[in-house]
Amino acid sequence: MMSSRDPGELGFYGFRNRKDRSYDGYAFASSAQVKAPRIWDWLGQAGLHTVVLGVPQTYPPSAVNGEMVTCFLTPSTRNEYTYPRALKAEVERVTEGYVLDVEDFRTADKAGLLQRVYEKTDKHLRLGKHLLRTRSWDFFMLVEMGVDRIQHGFWSHMDPAHPKHEAGNPFEHAIRDYYRHVDAELAELLALCPSDTLVLVVSDHGAKKMDGGICFNEWLMREGYLTLANRPSKPTPIGQAAIDWTKTRAWGDGGYYGRLFMNVKGREPAGTIDPADYERVRSDLVAGIEAISDPSGRTIGCKAYRPEDLYRSVNGVAPDLLVYFGDLDWRSVGAVGMGGIHTFENDTGPDEANHDWHGIFILSTAGAEAPLRGRLPDVSIYDIAPTVLRLMGQPLPDGLVGRPLH
Description:
The protein has helices at residues 7-10, 39-45, 87-95, 110-134, 146-158, 174-191, 216-222, 278-290, 307-310, 384-391; strands spanning 16-18, 26-28, 50-53, 66-69, 82-83, 139-142, 199-202, 206-209, 212-215, 250-253, 258-262, 303-305, 321-324, 330-333, 342-343, 353-356, 361-364. Strands 5-4-3-6 form a 4-stranded mixed beta sheet, sandwiched between helices. The protein has a 4-stranded antiparallel beta sheet with strand order 10-11-13-12. A 3-stranded mixed beta sheet has the order 14-9-15. It is globular and about 65 Å long. It has 2 domains: 37-207 and 357-391, no CATH class; 212-350, no CATH class. It is α+β, with helices and mostly antiparallel strands. It has 10 helices and 17 strands.
């Protein structure tokens, strides 16, 4: 969103990415690995003052013409998470102990979770209001993770169509009440902005009910692509399983979508797939994945994509396939020892919602002249950065995927 570059060009395919061709070389996505400029870099070069608060993939903090407080991927508040470094003491004082994320948002303790969501949101937005009042900014960006975490924690309580919904449950209105709370907080934020401020409300994804999980590696074992030296008796992360790499052709990662890696001779340490057979095996995998059904035998509409068909370029160690189970109604579960292909319990803790394809885009011009009006069709996540640059009178860099919306 902030670079208007696609994941292939950036070389990021999830929160955790393979950093080399070894089997255990994974690293969390960080700002140190981002090679493309982002919107605050371009604006800073033009002499504009920017405030960046909680935007994903900003840890470790980088130098900006303004202030930066990093995101939920920051390991701990014991780490340096602000630019300039001296800002950290101010953040801790204003918030009375800053909270980077909602801890343990995949939990059965819903009352405790709800309390932590509000605590995180209130501290974060208190800091946002403080920085709006005390900094002379040209561009101010804040990402609030609470709206994501509450959806993962409470979707079944809200949605009668969710397979785990119980009518009349005590948290039936938790999401709606929280949205209203956030709206009231946003009203206070906007009241601190000059009357000619252009305000954008955007999201990088939507949310939807999650029908269940497809145990990706269990399926690969059943189909003969993945072999374990011994099968665990209880759910075990694939990274902790005893994989027999000499007999394995593919393995997968869990998450909101799946990532499949093939074990290729000359590429992986103990590769088994001859490069001449690579495309044939990959095509067989696509066909098999797209035929996956639910427990009743109904095909759920899975899609497996080759990264080179999605992105302009493919950098880093990319998955061989990116997999979307059931149009994102089902998530990818990477653990083995699950006892079958389908599960209705997430391997990383209770989770009731999956990410959805479509987020939101709202532009409010307040007292400024309206450059856009009405409903906008076909807005892409890549269009946000060039739109902001155009709104702020800045030239568009070469090579952007998106386009300005006006």
